[in-house]
From TrEMBL:
UniProt-listed InterPro entries: 7TM_GPCR_serpentine_rcpt_Str
Keyword Chaperone: no
Pfam families: 7TM_GPCR_Str
Sorted UniProt keywords: Membrane, Transmembrane, Transmembrane helix
Protein name: G protein-coupled receptor
Taxonomic superkingdom: Eukaryota
Regions that span the bilayer: 12-29, 82-104, 132-154
Organism: Caenorhabditis remanei
GO biological processes: olfactory behavior
CC annotations in GO: plasma membrane
GO molecular function: G protein-coupled olfactory receptor activity
PANTHER family in alphabetical order: 7-TRANSMEMBRANE DOMAIN RECEPTOR C.ELEGANS (PTHR22943), SEVEN TM RECEPTOR (PTHR22943:SF29)
Length: 157
């Protein structure tokens, strides 16, 4: 049976629950932390009116402003936005860590197979597997983790 047992029976249910639980957590954070408030609506009101010719009362949006300006004109810290950013960061750290850890473990296995004096065909096959592994590790970083990190962290500064 080998490692197939990790994908059978009750373990299979766990594999299906992981994205459901993470998606529910993401939904909960988005709906509870990044709710539409007057501060956010006022912040983007003019842009929405000029760009889309729409009133804010007709627009549904989610947003977080790290340093909004209050009624007195002072810049304040919006701790809810920082809380949401922290929770989103935790949710993104979990799959990032899984990719790094299992990518490294797979790399060690493939490297070990290459070092065992196997046939040239086997070595080429293992090298193709290694290259596919590298691509599967780098692509999510480039197209998921880095853009998300920049999108949410740069407005803090």
């Amino acid at each position: 049976k080998g490692r197939v047992r990790y994908f059978q029976g009750n373990n299979l249910i766990i594999w299906f629950l992981i994205p459901i639980v993470c998606g529910a957590a993401w939904l909960l954070i988005t709906s509870e932390v990044y709710t539409q408030t007057k501060i956010e609506a006022d912040y983007i009101r003019n842009s929405v009116k000029q760009t889309f010719n729409s009133d804010m009362e007709d627009v549904v949006f989610i947003s977080g402003i790290f340093y909004p300006i209050d009624e007195t004109g002072q810049r304040i810290i919006n701790w809810r936005t920082f809380l949401g950013f922290g929770l989103f960061s935790i949710l993104m750290t979990i799959p990032f860590t899984v990719i790094i850890v299992f990518g490294y473990r797979s790399w060690k296995i493939v490297r070990g197979l290459l070092d065992h004096g196997e046939s040239e065909y086997s070595k080429n096959l293992q090298m193709q597997l290694y290259k596919a592994l590298v691509a599967q590790t780098i692509l999510p970083m480039i197209f998921l983790f880095i853009p998300f990190g920049l999108l949410f962290s740069l407005p803090m500064f």
